[in-house]
Amino acid sequence: MSKKRGLSADEKKTRMLEIFHQSKDFFQLKELEKIAPKEKGITMQSVKEVIQGLVDDHLVDSEKIGTSIYFWSFPSKTKNIKKRKLHDTQNEFEDVTKRLKKVEEAITIESVGREPSEERNQLLKLLSEVTKQENELKMELQKYRDSDPEYIAQLKNEIEDLKTAANRWTENIYILKSYIKNTFQKDNETINQTFNIPPDMDYIEN
């Protein structure tokens, strides 16, 4: 018989929050050390660490009253934190979208009748950084997909627009590479190395 898998850190946090949210009560650490193993399968030795992690994440509040420390968390607190993070991430995503559009426009302008330059190299580098940041933000937004269905639906449409825009500047880069290849008789590998263009660069399909 295979050994039973222990709970992950995230699973412990989720189950510990359930104790607070289901009871809507206040607890001392020693009380949680008795309740958590029995009701949620969290070992007594790890209760203190889990609680501290939730306090650090601002998901559980604590207050010293007299000589005792009490912990509590209500469902609305977690919901409000998710909404605030979603709002902050949305604002950051919108900012990155604007930067991506500006970089795309700059590359389009620079690629018309211009020879390779250091400025173009910097634009390509900036474009790569912004695209990476955009992908990281998509992953961050995915964490809160259950918080605001209407916004997520809107976000999907915006991502499709971003894919279209990304494919346009990808096309511009291909045009620029073709221009350099024909004008300066440079091979594809040399062009990629000179301008730091990833050899596996391709259009976004999915």
Automatic annotation (TrEMBL):
Sequence ranges assigned to domain Leucine zipper with capping helix in this UniProt record: 152-204
An MF annotation (GO) of this entry: double-stranded DNA binding
Location(s), subcellular: Nucleus
Coiled-coil zones: 86-172
Single GO biological process annotation from the record: reciprocal meiotic recombination
Annotated Gene Ontology cellular component terms: nucleus
Record has Coiled coil as a keyword: yes
Chain ranges of the Mnd1 HTH domain: 16-75
Record keywords, A-Z: Coiled coil, Nucleus
InterPro entries to which the protein is assigned, alphabetical: LZ3wCH, Mnd1, Mnd1_HTH
Family to which the UniProt record says this protein belongs: Belongs to the MND1 family.
Described purpose of this protein according to its UniProt entry: Required for proper homologous chromosome pairing and efficient cross-over and intragenic recombination during meiosis.
Protein name as annotated: Meiotic nuclear division protein 1 homolog
Organism lineage: Eukaryota, Metazoa, Ecdysozoa, Arthropoda, Hexapoda
